[in-house]
Write a structure and sequence with these properties.
heterodimer; A: mainly beta; 5-stranded antiparallel beta sheet; B: 0% helix; 56% strand
């Protein structure tokens, strides 16, 4: 069955360092992989989308990589700030307006 | 752009009553809207997909008679939890997709916290 794994353990990182979050999947061939940020009691906010034929995508301090051979995406936040503290969700989209499947998210805590 | 609102943000009701949650796309026309449910420390679980003017498509295990979805216009979808019970207490989130904005991206509402006593 399809499975998406994100680190269930919270990730604590010192302010200014680079945070790296992992999303692994099995039995899935996504056309797109997306990353969202979710704050407590709020809906997810879209951050970045990367397509299956792309290796890397950047947006300001954010960088996403996508390795379809390893079935893994890495999400990096450089020069992390306390305001980056949130839960980050990866989502796999098979395309063609089919159902998007979300991971359980990794909680990031940036310590001042 | 691409703002989705939900109303109410929080609702407390007695067991057996019905609750209606509204989802609106404020600055775009949503050809497709999605309803999710999220329990604490769990992932978003898709409940149903609705296209404007047609019946919603429900995910396996979601009771269509209990969770009534209406997508009457390109900017409004409603989810009605009928005869709510304490186990229906959860965080309900809608999202919308519009080809005019981005074919691949879903834009989420802020969510509605439902507590059934």
């Amino acid at each position: 069955s399809q499975k998406i794994e994100q680190n269930s353990e919270a990730l604590n990182i010192q302010e200014g360092k680079t945070a790296t979050l992992t999303c692994n999947y099995t039995n899935y061939s996504p056309a797109y992989l997306q990353w969202y940020r979710q704050d407590p009691g709020r809906g997810p906010v879209f951050l970045l989308l990367i397509r299956e034929n792309e290796k890397e995508k950047r947006k300001e301090r954010l960088k996403v990589t996508f390795d379809t051979t390893l079935k893994q995406s890495l999400f990096h936040i450089t020069a992390s700030q306390p305001a980056d503290s949130a839960t980050y969700l990866c989502a796999l989209d098979p395309g063609g307006y089919q159902k998007v499947t979300f991971g359980t998210g990794t909680k990031l805590q940036v310590i001042p | 752009g691409a703002v989705v609102s939900q109303h109410p943000s929080r609702v407390i009701c007695k067991s057996g009553t019905s609750v209606k949650i509204e989802c609106r796309s404020l600055d775009f026309q949503a050809t497709t809207m999605f309803w999710y449910r999220q329990f604490p420390k769990q992932s978003l679980m898709l409940m149903a997909t609705s296209n404007e003017g047609s019946k919603a498509t429900y995910e396996q295990g979601v009771e269509k008679d209990k969770f009534l979805i209406n997508h009457a216009s390109l900017t409004l979808s409603t989810l009605t939890v009928t005869s709510a019970h304490p186990e229906d207490s959860s965080f309900y989130i809608c999202s919308a997709r519009a080809a005019s904005v981005s074919q691949e991206t879903q834009y989420f509402g802020p969510g509605t916290r439902l507590l059934v006593l």
